[in-house]
Structures are given as C-alpha cells and as structure tokens.
C-alpha cells in the first residue's frame, strides 16, 4: 500500500509543481522579468516547493536527517543529473554575467552550509541551529535583492520575456488560481510522500539519511527535471540553467533557513563526503563551461559523476 501511495503522491507533486510554476511564470511575464531571473527566482523557487515542504515537515517531526539530506541530495541531483541531461539534449548557454554572479553565489552558499553544519570543521557536531538558519536566510534575501537589481539595471526587453512562452495574453486571475491550487495540492501530496517514503525505508532497514539523500531527494527534484528538460526542448536553455542554479540556492538558503527555525537540525547521517560532492557539483558547471556554454561533453561528465556518487552510496549501505 505504501508503494501505491508513494507513486500517487509523486504524480501529484509533479502536477502541482508544474501548475504552480505555470502560474508563477505567467505572473512574471506580466511584469516583464528576464528569462534567467524567471528561471532562477520564479521557476527555481516554484520547483523547489516540494523540497521546502518535505524538509519543513521533517523538521516539524524531528526527522532532521530528512530535512538536511533532502536538500543536499536534491542539489547533487539537480546539477549532476538534471543539468547534465539537459546539456546532453541541448548545449546550455552560460553567459559571462551569470558566471560572474549566480554560479559563484551557488558555490559560496554550498561552502557556507558545509562550514555551518560542521561548526567550521572542528568536528564536534553536525548541526544547523537557529542562528545558522538566520545566516542562510540573510543570504537568501541578499540573492533575491541583487538578482532583481541586476535584472533592472541590465534592462529586460518585453521580447526576451515573451520568448519564454510566446505571445499569449496573460490572464492574471487564472495565473493566481494556478499558484493557489498548485500550492495547496503540493502541501498535501508532499505530506503523503514523506509518510510513505519513511515507511518504506523502515521496511528495507535503510537509514533515514540514505533514503532522504536518494529517494526523497530525487522525487522532490522531479519538477526541476521536468522544467529544465522542457526548457531545453524549447531551446530556452537560459531558463533551464536559471532553474537549476536558483533551485540550489533556494534549497540551501531559504529551505534550511526556515527548517532550522522550526527545529535545530542535526544531520548526523549526512557525511562530509555528501557535503563535498554537493560542493563539487556546484563548481562543475563553472569549470566545464566551454566557449560560453555547457556542451554535450560537459553533460556526459556530470552524468558520470552522478553515477559514481550513487555507486559510492550503494557500496556503503
């Protein structure tokens, strides 16, 4: 029965996240926001809503390995699998402006999270307390402010915005309805997804840390996968890159920031290796850029890294 509930909840998560993102993108288009910012802020935050609810629910129930492992696993999954697969389908544009701010910012918050989690590497505990959470939330506010400031300074054209989904007139009432309905269903479906995933983990005799960094992380990252692949097929790779980078920044700064205010997080089951892979994954897109884009070769390299990491996890069960 748990497997049926898990499958239904997963389908509901994907549909509700897609509905939420569609409404959010329509609202963003109405106010003429650029493709990358739509991807990084609007779509990125929208597709990260499953991670937000799963991690917050884990914190509320004292399942702190779920809260932290979901974010760490999702960030690895987002870059190595989703961005890798997207680059295989269509080489991803990575303009110099994004390589100078968004990508380094993503690397920076990954490093900050690791330092906070390990109390600056003194080795005494793995903990994200309320003060640490406030630091992460401050970084989220800074990212949002700088992103919109830079977007306004660079001057977004209406034509660039229309290229996200060409031409149709925005019905604001319908857009708001999509956001409300998508959000409500997302909360409900994530509740059942977490319940069934934890139950299955216990049946298998697998730790909550492992199940959160694999099954739950992959499941809650499926909206990012759908959004990025769809953007690549439409040749809108700027939105795809923005979606992944924005989601990862949002996961660390806002989701763990909020979760730690609900309950201090102690992710003892998440090892330094997992944090290190998350940092390497955040650095990979910057290192693999060739002539301003992530090529199919870069995509293949990231996918190989994802396979290697999961082989490591399975070998250490």
Brief account:
The chain has 317 residues and is mostly helical.
Give an overview in words:
With 317 residues, the chain is an all-alpha fold. It is built from 14 helices and two strands; from the N terminus they run H-H-H-H-E-H-H-H-H-H-H-H-H-H-E-H. It has helices spanning 2-30, 35-47, 49-60, 64-89, 96-100, 102-117, 130-154, 158-162, 172-204, 208-220, 222-233, 237-262, 272-288, 296-315; strands at 92-93, 293-294. The protein has a two-stranded antiparallel sheet with strand order 1-2. The longest helix is centred in the middle third of the chain and has 33 residues, at 172-204. The two termini are 25 Å apart. The model is unreliable at 156-166 (pLDDT under 50).
What fraction strand?
Answer: under 5%
Name the helix and strand elements from N-terminus to C-terminus, one letter apiece: HHHHEHHHHHHHHHEH
Catalogue the unreliable spans.
Answer: 156-166
Measure the end-to-end span: 25 Å
* Fraction of residues in helix: over 70%
Number of strands: 2
**What's the story with the biggest beta sheet?**
2 strands, antiparallel
Strand order of the largest sheet: 1-2
The rough form would be described as globular
Rounded mean pLDDT is 79
Tally of separate helices: 14
Counting copies of identical and different chains, the oligomeric state is single chain
**Structural class computed from helices and strand pairing:** mainly alpha
Q: Please state the CA-atom Rg, rounded to the nearest Å.
A: 18 Å
């Amino acid at each position: 029965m748990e497997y049926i509930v898990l499958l239904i909840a997963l389908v509901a998560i994907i549909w509700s996240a897609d509905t939420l993102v569609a409404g959010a993108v329509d609202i963003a288009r109405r106010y003429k926001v650029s493709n990358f910012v739509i991807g990084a802020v609007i779509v990125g935050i929208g597709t990260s809503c499953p991670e937000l609810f799963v991690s917050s629910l884990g914190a509320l129930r004292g399942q702190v390995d779920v809260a932290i492992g979901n974010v760490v696993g999702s960030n690895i999954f987002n870059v190595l699998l989703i961005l890798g697969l997207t680059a295989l389908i269509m080489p991803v544009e990575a303009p110099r402006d994004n390589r100078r701010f968004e990508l380094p910012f993503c690397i920076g918050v990954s490093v900050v999270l690791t330092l906070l989690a390990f109390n600056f590497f003194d080795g005494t505990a793995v903990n994200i307390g309320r003060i640490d959470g406030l630091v992460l939330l401050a970084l989220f506010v800074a990212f949002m402010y700088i992103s919109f400031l830079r977007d306004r300074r660079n001057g977004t054209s209406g034509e660039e915005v229309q290229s996200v989904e060409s031409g149709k007139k925005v019905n604001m009432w319908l857009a708001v309805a999509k956001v409300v309905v998508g959000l409500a269903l997302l909360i409900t479906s994530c509740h059942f997804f977490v319940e069934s995933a934890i139950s299955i983990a216990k049946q298998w005799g697998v730790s909550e840390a492992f199940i959160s960094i694999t099954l739950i992380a992959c499941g809650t990252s499926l909206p990012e996968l759908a959004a990025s692949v769809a953007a690549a097929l439409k040749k809108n790779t700027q939105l795809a890159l923005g979606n992944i980078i924005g989601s990862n920044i949002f996961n660390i700064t806002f989701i763990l920031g909020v979760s730690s205010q609900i309950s201090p997080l102690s992710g003892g089951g998440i090892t330094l290796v997992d944090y290190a892979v998350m940092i390497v994954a955040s650095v990979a897109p910057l290192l693999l850029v060739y002539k301003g884009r992530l090529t199919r070769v870069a995509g293949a390299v990231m996918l190989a890294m994802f396979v290697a990491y999961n082989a490591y996890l399975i070998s250490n069960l």
